[in-house]
Structure formats: C-alpha cells, structure tokens
Design a protein that fits this description.
Largest sheet: none
Strand content: under 5%
Helix content: 55-70%
Number of helices: 8
Shape: globular
Distance between the termini: 26 Å
Length: 185
C-alpha cells in the first residue's frame, strides 16, 4: 500500500530521464535500482541523505543524488532524506556535533555563539556568510564531531530503515493472512 502510494506520488524515472535538462545524463540515470523501491536501495539512500544533509549550503540534494548514482542507492530516498536539515535544525545539529567533538578531542574552549539572524533583507543576505564564519571558527573540534555524527546517522538510518521495512512487510503479511482466513469457508 505504501509502495503504491509512493509510486503514484513520485515522478516516474522516464519523466526524469526525459526532462530537457537531464537528457544528457539519461544513460547514467537508467539503472533500475536508482528508482526501484527495494529495501536495501532505499536504506542506502536514507543513509546517504542523512550524511549529505549535514553539508552546509544549498547543494545537499545534488550531492545526495550524485553519491547515490555510483552506489546504486534509491535517488528519491536520498534526496528526500536531506530535508531533515532546515534553518531550524541546522544550528542545533552543528552544536550537537561540536559537543560530540569536544567529548572526543577533550577541547575545553566554550562553544562560540551562533550568529544572530537579522529579520531584514540585509540580515537575510548576511546569513550564509555569517554561518560559514561561525562554522570555520569552531575548527577541528567540529570536524571530528561531524565525522562521528555522520557515521552514527548513516548506520542508524540504514538500520532503522531496514527494521521499519521488515516490520511493515511482516504486518502486511499478517493482515493478508487474516483477511484470507476470514474469506475462506
């Protein structure tokens, strides 16, 4: 049921390969595992999306798709999973990564305060440069924390997707078995 609804909602691989801006890479996008809702391909796509979601800037979805292609992961799952980071969750995730890095490296310096967002056009235009300056001020402690956080997110996302897929399939089997048992004389 979920797979059917996803197939109806997501664009078809043919429509994506036929898009005028993507026709040049149609041979690369033609592998069926990139689009098929298979549990391993989807789980790998979720893991890729969780890792690339931590990339600062607007290239998260592009990187997720580019990494999913050679690994034969599900592209829609990889791209969709990057949406867990947004302007509200980005700073807390990086603060968490910094705290993890502090635990591992033994850093004793306090956390630098994230930049304040000005609610005007000028503040909005300065948001990205201010965030990059804040990230670079955190240094290697943040890099170590992000690496650990990426590994944990990838393993956790892969495992949770596999477990959820298995639970959904087992529930569907049980439901189908009871439905068939009720219809038999």
């Amino acid at each position: 049921m979920i797979r059917r609804k996803l197939r109806e909602t997501l664009p078809s691989p043919e429509s994506i390969r036929g898009h005028r801006w993507l026709q040049w890479c149609a041979p690369v996008l033609s592998h069926p595992r990139l689009w098929h809702l298979h549990r391993r391909a989807v789980a790998l796509g979720v893991a890729i999306g969780l890792v690339t979601g931590l990339i600062p800037g607007p290239i998260q979805m592009l990187m997720a798709a580019l990494i999913a292609i050679p690994l034969r992961a599900n592209i829609p799952a990889a791209v969709f999973t990057t949406l867990y980071t947004n302007p509200l969750t980005f700073v807390p995730l990086y603060v968490l990564a910094y705290q993890i890095g502090r635990l591992v490296t033994g850093e004793t310096a306090p956390l630098a305060v994230p930049p304040e967002i000005g609610w005007s056009w000028e503040g909005f235009l300065q948001l990205v440069p201010n965030l990059f300056a804040w990230i670079s001020s955190l240094g290697s402690t943040l890099a170590v924390g992000l690496a650990i956080q990426c590994v944990l997110f990838a393993i956790g996302g892969y495992a949770l997707t596999m477990l959820a897929w298995r639970a959904i399939v087992a529930w569907a089997w049980r439901t189908r078995r009871t439905r068939r048992a009720r219809t038999r004389p």
